[in-house]
Specification:
Layout lengths: L2 E5 L2 H13 L4 E4 L11 E5 L7 H15 L5 E5 L8 H12 L1 E5 L7 E4 L2 E4 L2 E2 L4 H7 L6 H7 L4 E4 L1 H5 L2 H13 L4 E4 L4 H12 L5 E5 L1 H8 L2 H4 L16 E5 L4 H14 L2 E5 L1 H6 L6 H13 L4 E5 L10 H13 L7 E5 L1 H11 L3 E9 L2 E6 L9 E5 L8 H9 L24
Keywords: ATP-binding, Carbohydrate metabolism, Kinase, Nucleotide-binding, Transferase
InterPro entries: 4-carb_acid_sugar_kinase_N, 4-carb_acid_sugar_kinase_N_sf, NBD_C, NBD_C_sf
Family: Belongs to the four-carbon acid sugar kinase family.
Length: about 425
């Protein structure tokens, strides 16, 4: 079995596809259908549709599917576990071509679950969370409503049915696939629930495709049907990617806590760029001085935490523009960075586009949803390490864990148990 993953942003594409890389499959994330993906068994494409209209997002998603799908290949439509973006319109565009949409956004390992057809975040209804209120304060978070608005007929698979008799579950899913239903919303509150779903869904003879976050992807990656016949990649990764540039475009409370812990434990230099500078870009009078400040830090071999500031004029809708300009500010000095950690899908994509990286070979998962990889094509003879992470995602430890990985470092004992690596770094032994 081979797989095509279609995601609406880069960090989402990576945090879904990394499950397959971690299982040993040759896995590539690409920014465009025309970029090189080598002989990858799993290809994930970022269609960059988060900020488009629903109709535009559907058209671009279908175009990516038609350009990349191969005979016998399965489809996984990656969606955000908190239902951001135009996911329902994108599923609607794919459904007529790919069959029944099996919708399971749950990611229990990160606190995202689905019960009675509703998404919960750490047990809290999605509509009441900061993440939802920030972008969708005036919209319903009901999945059935969203899918119906995209023109789809919806059925539901409840938790008792999912956890019941396996043969009955298979018959029920087949019946739904043969009915007039076009999307099946599946409850799941544990990783075991997703494992059951992955096994049952692969037995369907009727045309279908998965719609989920990184949670369901992890269970599919471990299926015998998927592993069978695979040409597994061997990962021997013990390099140090320094200096490390940490690029944070997200203004979420999650990212704020992650930055605070990173600064506390590493003493990394922090530069916060005012939105006013990024709004005007190179036209701003202080642009060159900010560019020089970044260059001075990296040229000295120092790690740098570079963030977008916030002011009274800030509007969440300008996020893509600010991320693009932040990447432009970095571009002339990027060659001095050995590794980069990019938080926020728009920020990660903007950076890779700015420096000419079209595809990443994924190699390892730093922690749940935090992916590490390297460019398929070398840049001036080098392949910098790249870590991507969604903005409002991950533990408070996530950025620090990514920094440890890129620096081939072990976590000091006073902070907890470390994992790998360079015995000399931080004066520790493994």
């Amino acid at each position: 079995m081979t797989l095509l993953i279609i995601a609406d942003d880069l960090s989402g594409a990576a945090d879904c596809a990394i499950a397959f890389a971690s299982a040993g499959h040759n896995t590539v994330v690409t920014l465009d259908a025309t970029h090189d993906t080598g002989d990858a068994r799993v290809v994930a494409i970022d269609t960059d549709t988060r900020r488009l209209t629903g109709a535009q997002a559907g058209e671009r998603t279908l175009a990516a599917y038609q350009a990349l799908i191969a005979p016998g290949q399965k489809l996984y439509k990656k969606i955000d576990s908190t239902l951001r973006g135009n996911w329902a319109d994108e599923v609607g565009a794919l459904q007529a071509h790919a069959g029944l949409a099996i919708v399971a956004p749950a990611f229990p390992a990160t606190g995202r679950t689905t019960l009675d057809g509703q998404v919960l975040v750490n047990g809290q209804p999605l509509e009441t969370t900061e993440t939802w209120r920030l972008e969708h304060a005036d919209r319903s978070a009901d999945m059935t409503t969203m899918l119906q608005a995209a023109g789809l007929r919806v059925a539901r698979l409840t938790l008792p049915m999912l956890r019941g008799d396996a043969a009955a579950l298979s018959r029920h899913m087949a019946e739904v696939a043969r009915s007039e239903a076009q999307a099946l919303i599946v409850d799941a509150v544990t990783t075991e629930d997703l494992k059951i779903l992955s096994c049952a869904s692969t037995q369907l003879k009727e045309a279908s495709f998965w719609v989920g976050s990184g949670g369901l992807a992890r269970e599919i990656a471990l299926l015998p049907d998927f592993i069978s016949g695979a040409s597994l990649q061997t990962i021997d990764e013990h390099e140090k990617y320094a200096p490390t540039l940490v690029l944070v475009g997200s203004l979420s409370a999650v990212s704020e806590r992650q930055c605070a812990l990173l600064k506390e434990r590493t003493g990394i230099e922090e530069v916060v760029v005012p939105p006013a500078v990024l709004r005007l870009g190179k036209k701003h009078g202080d642009w060159e001085s900010w560019e020089a400040r970044i260059g001075q830090c990296l040229n000295q071999g120092d790690d740098l935490l570079l963030r977008i500031g916030r002011d009274d004029a800030f509007d969440p809708a300008e996020g893509a523009h600010l991320s693009t300009e932040l990447a432009a500010l970095v571009r002339s000095n990027f060659a001095q960075a050995g590794g980069v950690i990019a938080t926020g899908g728009e920020t990660a994509r903007a950076l890779l586009c700015a420096v000419g990286i079209g595809s990443l070979q994924l190699l390892r998962e730093v922690e749940a949803g935090v992916a590490f990889g390297r460019p398929i094509t070398a840049l001036a003879g080098r392949r910098p390490g790249v870590v991507t992470k969604a903005g409002a995602f991950g533990t408070d430890h996530a950025l620090y864990a990514a920094w440890l990985h890129l620096n081939n470092a072990i976590e000091p004992a006073q902070y907890g148990a470390g994992t790998v690596t360079n015995p000399a770094l931080l004066g520790k032994t493994s």
